[in-house]
Amino acid sequence: MNLKEENSINLAWLAKRIKSLRSESGLTQLQFLHETNIHIGRIEQGKRDISFTTLCKICDYFKISLEDFFANERLHKKNHNS
């Protein structure tokens, strides 16, 4: 797998994870925007990467640690590489 493919897979995982957190909280993208000033529409589509500070703000908003955010990522990589 080349770097571009790996980046696409990682962005897709990130998008799915953020969308899952938002959906589980019962928030719309517009509500999330109003409460955080973070526009996540393109992030959730996997079309936009985010900065570390934005990821930290998202984790703070959902009251989870970065470790919790990435907990399922290890399983994703393990299953994807199998």
Automatic annotation (TrEMBL):
InterPro entries: Cro/C1-type_HTH, Lambda_DNA-bd_dom_sf
Protein name: HTH cro/C1-type domain-containing protein
Top-level lineage group: Bacteria
Pfam families: HTH_3
Coiled coil: none
Transmembrane segments: none
Record SUPFAM superfamilies: lambda repressor-like DNA-binding domains (SSF47413)
CDD domains (alphabetical): HTH_XRE
A GO term, aspect molecular function: DNA binding
Biological classification of the source: Bacteria, Pseudomonadati, Bacteroidota, Flavobacteriia, Flavobacteriales
All copies of domain HTH cro/C1-type, residue ranges: 18-69
